[in-house]
User: What shape does this take?
Amino acid sequence: CTRVMWTPPLRESFSYPFLVLQMLLVTHILRATKLYRGSLIALCISNVFFMLPWQFAQFVLLTQIASLFAVYVVGYIDICKLRKIIYIHMGILAMKPHFLKINVSELSLWVIQGCFWLFGTVILKYLTSKIFGIADDAHIGNLLTSKFFSYKDFDTLLYTCAAEFDFMEKETPLRYTKTLLLPVVLVVFVAIVRKIISDMWGVLAK
Assistant: This one.
């Protein structure tokens, strides 16, 4: 979105409106007291149109699913709503009643579900890529490796030539502070963290 002004035909520029629509629909589904089939169908369609123009849309959706799952684990999202949103990840959610039957503590339940999610996304993706020899998105991992270690190849050198893939400039936080964006975000972030810690502590205390 920040690069649209000088490079209009970017793939993500075409996906961005559908991402906004998709986020709106997810928020609507989470806030609604009753699930409607029309909202779920609209969410499915917006997901498809978001992913079609941009091959990196999967990483945005992975981040969204991870955030929703973390919020579900803490107890802010109803299991029915999360199951509808990420039906493909239903295996982990369906196992919760079985864990509850064997009197697993709430803390242990958080750890178990977190480990299942880690295995189901990161480790399983790595194993399937190795088994089937899939290397279409290998340059993403190589790019991250090159930013923190001394790894270099043609793709990483080509990407890191662009300023967009460089580390954030020192002036950027200053600009965000002058516009009051950064202080507001920090205040909201601290409030959210305090609320989560308070609720988690209350659950563990019981």
Notes: Residues 1-103 form one domain. The CA atoms of residues 194 and 200 lie 10 Å apart.
